[in-house]
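Exercise 7. Predict the joint structure of the components listed below.
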Amino acid sequence: MQGMADVRTIAFIGTGVMGRSMAEHLLRAGYALHVFNRTREKAEPLLAAGAQWHDSPGSAAAAAEMVISIVGFPADVEQIYLGAEGIVENASVGALLVDMTTSSPRLARRIAAAAAERGLMAVDAPVSGGDVGAREARLAIMAGGTAEAFARARPVLEKLGRTLVHQGGPGAGQHCKMANQIAVAVGMLAWAEALAYAKTAGLDPARVWESISGGAAGSWALTNLAPRALAGDFAPGFYVKHMLKDIGIALDCAAEMGFAAPGLETARAAYHRVLELGWGECGTQAIYRLYSEASTAAAGGGKSRA
Amino acid sequence: MQGMADVRTIAFIGTGVMGRSMAEHLLRAGYALHVFNRTREKAEPLLAAGAQWHDSPGSAAAAAEMVISIVGFPADVEQIYLGAEGIVENASVGALLVDMTTSSPRLARRIAAAAAERGLMAVDAPVSGGDVGAREARLAIMAGGTAEAFARARPVLEKLGRTLVHQGGPGAGQHCKMANQIAVAVGMLAWAEALAYAKTAGLDPARVWESISGGAAGSWALTNLAPRALAGDFAPGFYVKHMLKDIGIALDCAAEMGFAAPGLETARAAYHRVLELGWGECGTQAIYRLYSEASTAAAGGGKSRA
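Solution:
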């Protein structure tokens, strides 16, 4: 079958914080890169390192055996794959298309179907692990697509992550990422509500953290994000506005399937309030600020009740 | 001041699964134990190891310099401390009273006040870590009481736990435990909703677990309880009915303080449904069963949608 030889040439679409680190790993691993990004400046370090610039996603795709994309929103994914001068229309015969954006399962299936019509293979492969995971090539990569497409993508994806799991057919990678985001979003409520409750009761939340973080209440977020929130550090690791995007996709999928997600609905309401308060550009730990400021108001200035 | 010498004689009230292991540690550490339990059989191994039996909490308390209790519900705590033949009325002058039951902060304050009227000191010191933590003397102990009472209790409590933190005045230990339970209860929603979503979408939840358990979605519960749930093992580590008891106490406290706890409200509704389905004697991981059976119904038999 065409295109089953090892991939050597990759079109990389989207060279933001995540994409740039990932593209660097591929350059270092010896792949020839053709890059496109909405703002060219962000691609400059890659161009200096030997990548070749293209003026459209389609032009980059036409020059490569494989396309990897990681952009912002589902609308961006739709545009670069299915829009004018898009990837599906312009990719070379037999090319493998891998979208690593967190996007909708339904769109992933549409792209896979459109790709198949042109004899192309598609994999949806969103990631978790954030900018640090991308930099250190230890992302968790959740892949959806045919077994054949996954097998072909595997050697390249292994350069980018540590946990690479084939979750099922087209869209399954995105569904797995939605499951991840559900656990993340609802898990944020868990520690934020717990520590804000303690603060309202007059306890020192940092001391409560000492008591609870090592046991059954423990989580990655309690260990890593709660201390930032308690220190008043709401700088983004993962943006509130992106959390809301992902919650919206997951709730749409849940509604389509008739799956009730009361925890996630509660998280959406809380994050929506965080956004309304003007903290959309904060990190997701800003949810603690919502709870603790609300409780300070309710408690009449947070006087001790313990 | 009276009673400030090192404690050598302890009354231990409540020798259930947790209490028996804890009492054994104290016997081994050389303390003389006077025990009471509602059903005497459960105390027999301790009596065989040298503890002395009493027919009431008050009688045991009268024979000791310190009282430790760990019983079932707040009503039991109220009964043994403030009821007829109770601890507060019968404790010897200068005794130190330490309740380790998960109970209400308000009751802890009432007991401390009643104790103070008789010249006794009281500490509320609930724990997390479960039966395994009790057996291995690595409980997290969250203490409330005066600095003086805590200092006096510390050498004894150190025989029972690994993380011993003074959280504040009377009731603060219970408030900290409530914070722990909020994080636990809402955190259970997080992974259960995530994995049931994935199952509804046609994914294999065990494979999704592989992708998400090591990252930002990770938690103690996802690591330790989700695999049991996925294997159909709903045997109790921590009972659903006890989770509901603790959620009820926490929500009462939240209401008193005017603290909004939407995540915990959502968890209560879900666990209440678990109870209604007859799974109150199951472990808390039965919440996954609720989600996944509901979703199987919604999905018309769980056919693949990925």
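Discussion. Residues 4-170 of chain B form a domain with the Rossmann fold fold (CATH 3.40.50.720).
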